[in-house]
Amino acid sequence: MEKADRYLNAGTRENTRKSYRAAIEHFEVTWAGYLPTTAAGVVRYLAEYAGKLSVNTLKQRLAALAQWHITQGFPDPTKTPDVRQMIKGIRLVHPAQVKQAAPLLLKHLEQSVTWLEGEAASAIERADYKSLMRHRRSVAIILIGFWRGFRGDELARLTVDNTQAISGEGVTFYLPYTKSDRQHEGTTFHTPALAMLCPVEAYLNWITVAGIATGPVFQRIDRWGNLSGRGMQPHSLIPLLRRILREAGLPAELYSSHSMRRGFATWASANGWYIKGLMSYVGWKDMTSALRYVDASASFAGIALRGAQHPHSIEIKRASSSLADTD
User: Fold this and answer.
1) For residue 166, what are the domain limits?
2) What is the number of alpha carbons within 13 Å of residue 106 lying toward its C-beta?
3) Per residue in 191-207, is it b (16+ CB within 10 Å) or e — as a string?
4) Which of 258, 281, 308 is the last residue of a domain?
5) Is the pLDDT of residue 322 over 90?
6) CA distance 327 to 313
7) Residue 1 predicted with pLDDT over 60
């Protein structure tokens, strides 16, 4: 059965397993509930935490309870009309505005990268290899994250082994699975080289200075400037991004790792990308997910996009000596 367990566990993401275990613990320990439970028990549990926990959190708890009952051979108590009506009632009585990270505007992306490149140049002059490593990694993270529209966990799972980059042409990333790739068939993401703020050059500069030939692209760096060989954790990208933006003189607390994804979606929408082309490029499977990321109030002036419907033909040009972006 050990072999079977290996494949059964592989079919569920580790983060999902952790969240499900935490949900079951909350039900049994915090609320002092008994498993297996009934629909009436689930309704009482929901009533106790309505208004204390978000609807999304409650739905995640229901998913965990459903999974526990099904795997243990018990009837699923979460799919009854009373439970569905309870969730509907909680949503109506405790409406909550969906919180979204602010999109990282292109002018702020340029400001951040300009600051990072300046710091990298100073590090070279000082022969400060540790600072150079950190700043080259930061440039690669922020440019790849923006132009590829990657989530934090996707950035953290990129590997050199599954990446091909050619200077002046483009970079191709392969991920064995993504959030939208439910069947784990694997997805290939291509990003072209750009005239400025280029993710291809950022990637090549980073792996060259770091000397990485295999393993995670974005590895941890210890206090002495040594690579750990292990990939960064997705949750560490938010404080890293905020530190970069804060040091570049931007209001860092407005942003999260989703800000790069939202920033790209907003930029692409403002530059004439059709929603289907944007969905195909980023990897969204449904329209609702895509529209949540598009901020129609933001616009970017001074940017030209050639062949906007085809993601492989992005070309950014300066309309003047500097980008003139407006909110």
Assistant:
1) 106-258
2) 29
3) bbbbeebbbbbbbbbbb
4) 258
5) no
6) 26
7) no
